[in-house]
Amino acid sequence: MRVTMRNEFEGQITLSDGRRLGFQTFGPQGGRPLFYFHGFPGSRLEASWLRNGQGNGNGPLPCRVYAIDRPGIGLSDYLPGRSLCDWPADIAQFADAVGAGRFTVLGVSGGAPYAASCAWALPDRVQATGLVCGIGPLDDPVNSAGLHSVNRGFLGLLRRFPKLIKPAYLPFSLVFKHWPLALLDSRKALLPEQDRIALDDPDFREVLSGSFRESQRQGSRGSEHEMRVYSSPWGFDPGEIRGPVKLWHGEQDPVVPAAMARRMAAVLPNCNAEFFPDDGHYSLLARWTRQIVRELTHFTD
What we know:
Blueprint: E1 2-5, E2 10-14, E3 20-26, E4 32-37, H1 48-51, E5 63-68, H2 87-98, E6 103-108, H3 112-121, E7 126-132, H4 141-145, H5 149-160, H6 165-178, H7 182-186, H8 193-200, H9 202-215, H10 221-231, E8 245-250, H11 258-267, E9 271-276, H12 282-297
Parallel strand pairs: 4-5, 4-6, 6-7, 7-8, 8-9
Antiparallel strand pairs: 1-2, 2-3, 3-5
Helix pairs in contact: 2-3, 8-12
């Protein structure tokens, strides 16, 4: 395995099969390692919000953050046919390469299943798991029924006509690449107040815009495969995760319903859940993620 730094903050790790994983890193050298798994659409650049010290809980980060692009996203090479359960093996190699014997994982929105998979597959290495506005298993009809109609429609399309997902997703890929926030802005009036406030913040908009655009660096293939992963069974039972899990979710979340998070919290045997009554999906990231990282880092103290 080889680590190649592109600049002060970004690099790539070459895995044993020759694939590369792209990452962004910041925080104190020698700090506790925290692996940040971005949402969908998204990339390692989503974590720039933390690097820039934005949101509540400002102050020095207590950890060394590694925000990692998933295969086919950003700087990470595509992996055909990958499943959710392939991710922990990549992360174990990543951890070895950066010298992290044990580490914490934090999954945001679409990154939550990936964090959960690591907690399940690597119990001796994952010290604590954080789930922020995270999606649950979408092959569960109860969970998928609570999604926004657009997301639910995509899932239904993928299951019934999987070959159509490429042409169906291509227009979205082009929008995310060239006008990354256009879809969010078109729906802003339907979002809860705190989400609208968050999306009006120019600094937050810049981070989201860069992250969305970077997710399409290699074209639409990586994101298309992400949707296949989300619509498939996870391949493990979250109830078998024995390590400590901290879950944060907004009660007003219009993207991932709070009811989905409550079902996940009830299944996890060692879960501490916190729900924010006034927050939605984007405001949780904008307002609280830095504080969440601080809490998660000290969760096992």
